[in-house]
């Protein structure tokens, strides 16, 4: 029987998949460094590391690893038949050299890693007495392949632990998780050590196969249980961190959903921003364009554009996406400290090690999360890096809505986070900031880039024209009664887009004016853009004047009360809350009836009811 015929394909598959899994984990340079590494190379490297530690006055007994190398030598002879013609075999020992060289820079971690590696020697000792005649037994090969898989899993965990740039920072808080993984691998190795003996005994071949099936099931259950325990531990720590920070992101979700829904009502009107040259460069996962400021006047749709960029990034799943939307509707969203908390929570949420680190730093040590503590934590976790390249896209909208004193602090911390990530050597953080203010743009010699919506007139005009076409299509039955044909519709769309001068909000107000007013003649429709103010403030005043012309003094007071509650409430009020607030605004505690809901309709279009039944101005500029 040929050697090829005696090789278990299932065993080879396990070995190949284990090799490829570790290969994907290693950096290109580290993969190259492992090629051709012999056991003697590893022994020599261990001696060199020991000499280096001794020279630093931190001598460590490296002879503890010799039984491991001996065991690997005997094991390699047993598995050689499964690795013929492949690069798989040297990877059983080669990563040890790499891991020890890196870990030797931090003695406390080095000691723990040596102890972990030395534990592999015990289950490998069995192979010193292994009869190589059994190497062609397919049942034995299955067990040998599991050994290979476990050893490479051990290397992978050790490599990931020491290769991330911030591993010293995370060592104390993340070692426990790695220790539990190491323990599981060692336990699996010991279980399969007994299986080797039973499989090589022809008398117990049936018993060995039964044991193999049980071990396979136990292995799967053990891995599932470990993953579940780790997930539950991380969730508990994450919740504790959120509680310690007293952070609630539900309002951010509401803000984002409200803004994103505006784009969904007018599909395609925002897609141009994803084709904009500088935005495309920022979106790419590379080190170019790490800090971009997108500037635009009030009502130009910056927030909607921001939401579309965030949605695009999240759907691509190429990077970690962090977003924060500053809005007057939720006062806490404008607070500098809350912005720091928002960024921190989103950064650590998908990362078990970072959750553990922040949990230990804040919760276990009972540290008050002051601004200084939060800034330091953010710099640390952004600089922690990873064993592989990672990208973070951070989008912050509405900087101009924050207090003027907070704006430069926000810009400064974002710049520092970009620098901290870059210094890690493995993480790139790219910031996109939306604002009106020109002062956040690049200074001389600054790496920030600026995109001005005023320079994107063609795209903005086409987008507004498309928006107008969608809204006018809804009014077509009414407009047709005044002999407005397709040519008139096109003309009106172009007029609105041209007069809007990049302001989506102005176009929206014009279209709502068309929807909510009475027109007799075709000419009135076609001249509507000439009859309305082009400046937003004047437009608001005209809308307000038209709405209140026939109001009594009492009605005007009530309208002011509605607008005042919207402008100065700490958060948007729901309809029931709003009606109660209006009822008690007079100061009379004996209220037996709430104001009717139709009152809110009389404040349109400056006031709108959102999908969550809260009320807000159509734009922050109304409040201003």
TrEMBL record:
Keywords annotated in UniProt: Repeat
Domain Nephrocystin 3-like N-terminal: start-end pairs: 268-436
Superkingdom of the source species: Eukaryota
Pfam hit, one: NPHP3_N
Ranges for domain DUF7708: 71-204
Protein's name according to its UniProt entry: NACHT domain
Protein source organism: Fusarium albosuccineum
């Amino acid at each position: 029987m040929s050697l090829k015929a005696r090789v278990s394909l299932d065993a080879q598959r396990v070995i190949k998949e284990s090799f490829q899994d570790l290969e994907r984990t290693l950096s290109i340079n580290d993969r190259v460094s492992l090629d051709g590494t012999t056991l003697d190379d590893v022994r020599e490297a261990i001696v060199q590391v020991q000499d280096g530690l001794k020279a630093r006055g931190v001598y460590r007994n490296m002879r503890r690893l010799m039984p491991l190398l001996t065991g690997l030598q005997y094991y390699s002879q047993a598995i050689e038949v499964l690795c013929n013609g492949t690069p798989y075999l040297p990877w059983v020992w080669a990563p040890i050299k790499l891991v020890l060289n890196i870990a030797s820079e931090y003695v406390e971690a080095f000691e723990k890693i040596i102890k972990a590696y030395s534990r592999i020697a015990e289950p490998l000792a069995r192979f010193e007495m292994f009869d190589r005649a059994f190497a062609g037994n397919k049942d034995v090969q299955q067990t040998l392949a599991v050994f290979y898989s476990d050893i490479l899993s051990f290397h992978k965990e050790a490599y990931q632990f020491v290769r991330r740039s911030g591993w010293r920072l995370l060592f104390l808080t993340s070692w426990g998780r790695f220790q539990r993984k190491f323990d599981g691998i060692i336990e699996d190795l010991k279980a399969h050590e007994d299986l080797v003996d039973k499989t090589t005994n022809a008398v117990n071949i049936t018993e060995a196969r039964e044991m193999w099936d049980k071990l396979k099931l136990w292995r799967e259950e053990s891995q599932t249980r470990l993953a579940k325990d780790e997930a539950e531990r991380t969730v508990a720590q994450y919740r504790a961190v959120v509680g310690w920070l007293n952070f609630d992101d539900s309002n951010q979700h509401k803000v984002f959903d409200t803004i994103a829904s505006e784009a969904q009502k007018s599909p395609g009107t925002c897609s141009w921003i994803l084709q904009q040259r500088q935005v495309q460069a920022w979106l790419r996962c590379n080190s170019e364009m790490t800090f971009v400021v997108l500037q635009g006047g009030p009502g130009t749709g910056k927030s909607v554009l921001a939401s579309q960029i965030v949605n695009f990034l999240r759907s691509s799943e190429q990077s970690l996406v962090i977003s924060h939307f500053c809005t007057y509707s939720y006062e806490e969203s404008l607070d500098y400290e809350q912005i720091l908390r928002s960024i921190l929570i989103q950064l650590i949420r998908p990362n078990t090690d970072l959750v553990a680190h922040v949990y230990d730093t804040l919760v276990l040590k009972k540290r008050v999360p002051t601004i200084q503590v939060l800034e330091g934590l953010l710099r640390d976790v952004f600089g922690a890096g990873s064993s592989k390249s990672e990208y973070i896209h951070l989008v912050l909208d509405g900087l101009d809505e924050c207090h003027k004193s907070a704006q430069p602090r926000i810009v400064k911390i974002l710049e520092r986070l970009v620098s901290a990530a870059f210094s890690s050597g493995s993480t790139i953080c790219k910031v996109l900031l939306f604002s009106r203010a020109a002062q956040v743009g690049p200074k001389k010699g600054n790496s920030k880039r600026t995109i001005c919506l005023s320079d994107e007139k063609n795209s903005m005009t086409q987008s507004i024209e498309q928006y107008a076409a969608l809204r006018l299509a809804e009014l077509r039955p009414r407009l047709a009664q005044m002999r407005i044909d397709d040519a008139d519709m096109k003309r009106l769309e172009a007029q609105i887009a041209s007069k809007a001068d990049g302001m989506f909000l102005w176009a929206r107000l014009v279209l709502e004016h068309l929807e909510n007013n009475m027109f007799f003649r075709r000419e009135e429709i076609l001249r509507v853009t000439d009859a309305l103010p082009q400046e937003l403030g004047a437009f608001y005043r005209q809308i307000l004047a038209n709405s209140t012309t026939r109001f009594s003094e009492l009605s005007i007071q009530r309208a002011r009360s509605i607008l005042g509650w919207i402008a100065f409430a700490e958060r948007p009020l729901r309809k029931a809350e709003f009606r109660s607030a209006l009822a008690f605004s007079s100061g009379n505690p004996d209220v037996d009836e709430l104001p009717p809901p139709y009152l809110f309709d009389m404040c349109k279009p400056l006031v709108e009811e959102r999908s969550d039944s809260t009320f807000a101005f159509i734009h922050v500029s109304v409040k201003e």
